[in-house]
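User: Predict the structure for this protein chain, please.
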Amino acid sequence: MTDTAAAAASSAAPPPGPLSDLVVIEMGTLIAGPFCGQILGDFGAEVIKIEDPKTGDPMRQWGRSLPKGLSPWWPVIGRNKKSVGLNLRTPEGQALARELIAGADVLIENFRPGAMEKWGLGYEALAKVNPRLIMARVSGFGQTGPYSQRAGYGLIGEAMGGLRYVTGEPDRPPARAGISIGDSLAAMHAVMGITMALHHRERTGLGQVIDAALYESVLAVMENLITEYDLTDYVRERSGSILPGIAPSNAYPCANGEMILIGGNGDNVYARLTEAMGRPDLKTDPRFVDHASRGANQQELDGIIADWTAGFALPDLLKLLEDKGIPASRVYRAPDMLEDPQFAAREAIVSVEHPVFGPVRMQNAFPKLSATPGRVRWPGPALGAHTDEVLAARAGCSPERLEALRAQGVI
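Assistant: Here is the predicted structure, written as structure tokens:
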């Protein structure tokens, strides 16, 4: 190969992710722990997922439907990971796990507090052989406190963190977001903690524990909910598709039965909206002249705007508002995302080759980094697909030992 050809080949290869020098052991199941591992894997970390060798992560079976008998969840949340089947309820499995962790940078787990200690895999024991280890522990209520031993799924964290109470229509019971947002928020906070701990380790050489509780991860995004009550005794209530006092900012009907979202609450944007509507009088109307007055008369203003939007088909109205510089959008569904030029231009959705499904489309790795972007290298692997490879390379297991461990039900 000539120097020119070698340079061209080198420039064509995707750059390694920013975490490509990290080895991560993931022991989590379902979403909170595995989404943390997914994010780290998206940005290049070698993520070794330890699963029960017989059943694997329950996410392998989850889904409203199972095309070809397989879960559509697993290709996404299991992507960029190596699957190792290992029975952690056996002494041999625990010993192998300790060998793997001894050479790792990060350990992720989301078992109930105390489970890792029961298996001899608590942080104090692990740090004696690997003081650089960073251990991310994701749980419902954290590792301490009177609730720490309670079972805690994402919906419990959403309820306790305050999100469920304020979600939904005011005349109906609390609603859920439609996704497992509590689990995902906990995972993202765990990732933040890991990156902070890596920075600390650069300076000190020492690892630490990240204690990410689901309810606290939800609480962290609840804006001024606590402070507003503390200062004014106001309890935020469910308000449907609006935020009380922020107007206009709502979903409005279009002529073809679709809905459009319009955010026109800023003074300058509101002025442009009144021009688009052909209603300059609304700009100087005392009921709507400034942010406070629009908030006080929110329902009336929304009614006026809804009467106007109902006269347009959605595409025509989107074009009009775009030309006027007014934030507006259709309410996207999966088909809309797959057809949208913005998603395509930024490769927000990528196609990944799956051994059973063939090409599978899924969301890309985010956020975008200019020099070392994340990417989806492969979809969620088959259960135990990397067991022999990883245990041979990182635990020194010979083919004979692997065969014996398999016969004992350890792997």
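Residues 167 and 175 are 5 Å apart (CA to CA).
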